[in-house]
Amino acid sequence: MPSRALFRFLFLGGSLALLLGGAGAQAQHKPRRMAASPGGGKQACCEDVRALKVQVANLSSLLGELSARHEAETARLEGRAAELEKGKQQHERRLLEVEEKYSEVNSRLDITQLQAAQAVTKTSADAIYDCSSLYGRNYKISGVYKLPADEFLGTPELEVYCDMDTEGGGWTVIQRRKVGLTSFNRDWKQYKEGFGTIRGDFWLGNEHIFRLTRQPTVLRIELEDWQGETRYAEYAHFTLSNEMNSYKLFVANYSGNAGRDSLRYHNNTNFSTKNKDNDKCVDDCAQLRKGGYWYNCCTDSNLNGVFYRHGDHTKHSDGITWYGWHGSSYSLKRVEMKIRPQSFSP
Ligand SMILES: [Ca+2]
């Protein structure tokens, strides 16, 4: 823009020079005419000069005016150019934003499509099949939940009690003793399918426990005695085999404060009930201990034993026992067994 301004200034200057030159030429002509007409010549000359001076003054003022106007115009145009430049930059910025948004939407679309593809090849990780997956979906209040049937996994609808408070929550309770009105001296089929009341005393069912422990699972056992003291035993690894293998127990990596690990003795043993003696004894442990359990020969713990009330709780060998804490004839007041995946993080 400044170069154009300079050009225009030079152009105007040139025009002025031409005009002045023309005037000069006129002035040069005059004497000849004056010579041609002597007499009133000097006066005519002065008239001409004055007229030329006026003309020059007019032209100068015009030039000044033009130059000022030109400068104003230049400034205006420069301002306009700056505005346009600013506008252009804004435009580019907006374009960039739009491009970013577009690519963001595109990548989101990719993710959605990926998820859709994954949904088709749905894995067990997507299904609600225990309390930890409910916890993962923001159900964080302890209580009774209904796990939906899952055709893909071939699992039926199941009512469960979720402990969402203990040690970060996400626990599916598989056994509870606290009321004492439900007999645990049941047969194979009942232990397979589960029995009792979900808010009171119950066994979730070996088939359900087997299914829930197909992924790496933690088992937590909570015990309470008649003095209100509590202990717990945790196993970082817990699983059951299937029915064909008599729901054999596998536990490992004990931790806790329940004294001696009293489930270890039952590790690698089959489940037995009053009508199915799968224990490692000549005796019939399920008959002797009046429960269903992974009897060895016979017990170091018997969490499905007979519930004995306070006062009566130290007189029997078939009670709810954990030898490592209160020995072989102390029946506990309260027991809960609960499981959650090893991968669970609150
Ligand atoms: Ca036996």
From TrEMBL:
Residues 74-108 form a coiled coil. The lineage of its organism: Eukaryota, Metazoa, Chordata, Craniata, Vertebrata. Keywords: Coiled coil, Disulfide bond, Glycoprotein, Secreted, Signal. It is found in: Secreted. Gene3D superfamilies: Gamma Fibrinogen, chain A, domain 1. Pfam families: Fibrinogen_C. One of its GO terms (cellular component) is extracellular space. Residues 122-343 form the Fibrinogen C-terminal domain. SMART domains: FBG (SM00186). This is Angiopoietin like 7. It comes from Lepisosteus oculatus (Spotted gar). InterPro entries: FIB_ANG-like, Fibrinogen-like_C, Fibrinogen_a/b/g_C_1, Fibrinogen_a/b/g_C_dom. Transmembrane segments: none annotated. Residues 1-27 form the signal peptide. CDD domains: FReD. GO terms for biological process: blood coagulation. PANTHER family: FIBRINOGEN ALPHA CHAIN, FIBRINOGEN C-TERMINAL DOMAIN-CONTAINING PROTEIN.
